[in-house]
Every structure is written in structure tokens, then in C-alpha cells.
Amino acid sequence: MIKNVSLQIRDPFVLPVKREGLYYLFGSTDSNIWGRGTGFDVYTGTDLEHCEGPFAAFRPGPDFYAEKNFWAPEVYEYNGRYFMFATFRRKDNELLGTAVLTAAHPLGPFLPHSEGPVTPVEWSSLDGTLYVDEQQQPWMIFCHEWQQTGDGEICAMRLSGDLRQAADKPVVLFRGSEAPWTTPYSSIKYQGQENYVTDGPFLFQADDGTLYLLWASFIHNTYALGIAHSEGGGIAGPWIHQEQPLFHQDGGHGMVFKTFENKFMLAVHSPNQTPDERPFFLEFIEEKGEWKTAE
Predict the structure, then answer these.
(1) What total number of domains does the chain contain?
(2) How wide is the angle at C-alpha 76 spanned by C-alphas 106 and 39, nearest 5°?
(3) Per-residue confidence band for 289, with pLDDT thresholds at 50, 70 and 90
(4) Domain holding 10: CATH number?
């Protein structure tokens, strides 16, 4: 396990750029991420233990559509440019949504690309992540928030080829209560019913081509990370959940990347309390169809 004790980051996301020999570390970097948003920083390093930065990857202009809750930036190389998918709380209706920003380089500066959030305007949605399928169709996988639905949803939505807008209505892949490892989140009640959180989806393919989906929820009010695989091979699923969580030491919002040595690594933050959250990197291993961390 590698833990960077000096960095306060939630929702860590690592972009390896092999031609530069650099890892770019993004995340929710405001010291109080529950309040006013100042932007997103990025750190760079030739390994996962030492880094340089912070560098200002995104700073909102005066006309930006949001001013608080700047969360979970993820950066992808797509069609020769870099695209950031990030969550913001809108000024006009106070709902969360995921927008797309773009830059010529991972260091930025990232500028708005979509017209506000790509997620439905009437939904409270967060943690959008990009997945491009075998037909080169881009998708956004995101959460329809439990505070609006009660039983949080993981949804998928086709995007236009330029990533500026939705190309279809979202479909529900599964709900938080469907996994065998989750328990109701009772710290806050939504309409007096049992609530299940869905948080931080991320898709990746194993070396054998199997499609996996990481996502976070709670076990007895403690933050945890689980994984599911697509039995049908594509985004539509059906999604089969691994029986036990991958990480349940009050951490989650995971993503998977490959090191320059071609090893799978899992990135999470832990603990889940501000301002103590720190990024963790754990070697990620598949054994007999199930994933686990090396430690």
C-alpha cells in the first residue's frame, strides 16, 4: 500500500501519460469540499510516492454556472485532447450535476466544454465517468443521488461524439440495495425510508476483456468500495456484484489504472472525514475471477 500522508484529496484519479513518464493525480482538492469551490489542482510524479505541485488545473471564471461543491474530477485523453468530467452544484436550482471541461494538456487550464451539466437538469446527479465502448460510442456512467431517489442509482447515458451533450436518456444499471454487501445509510433519512447510497462509479476492463464497475456505498454507516462485472459483456449488463466489498476501512470512491510496469493499481481515499482524507494506492489483483488488493 502507498499512502501520501501530505495530500488532502478526496476522490483520487490517476492519469498515467507514458510518453511523458508522468502520473497526473487529480481529485477534490478544496480544503472544505462541502463549501465554496475554488477549482481543481493536479499533482505530477514519476512514481506514486513523490509528487510535485499543486498546479492549478481548473479555476472557474465569473460566469461559471456553479460556485460550490466542486467534486471528483476525472481526466481522459479523447480524440487528441484532454477532457475533465467533474461534479458541481448548480447556482440556478441547487442540484448536483456532472459537466465536461477540456484542455490541450493534463495540466490545463481546463475550460468549460459542455453547456453546464450533461446530466439531466432536474436530477441531482454526481460522479460522472467516461467509458468508450467497442463501437467507439462514448458513455457517461453516473449516480442519480440517493437524496433524491432514496435507493441510489448507477445510470448510463450515451453522449454525443464531441462529449458536449447527452445523446439519449439515461438508463438505470442497478440500485444500491441490489448489492449483497451494502446496508442502509441511517445517518441521514430520506423521506423516512431506508436509504442506500451509490457513489463514485468507474469502469475498467481486465486483461481478458471482462468489463468491471467499481462503486462506493456504506456498510453500517462506514464508507466502503465494491465491484461488479457485466455478465453480458457490455454496459447494459446484467451487473453481477462481488459478494464482499473490496475495501471497507472507511474509504472508497475508487478508480483503477495501470502503472508503467503494467500492473493494475486501485486508488481510493480514506478516511472519509474532512479534512483527514488522503489518497491510497494499492496493487490490484484478480484471482479466480475475483478482485482483491495485494495487502
Answers:
(1) 1
(2) 55
(3) confident
(4) 2.115.10.20
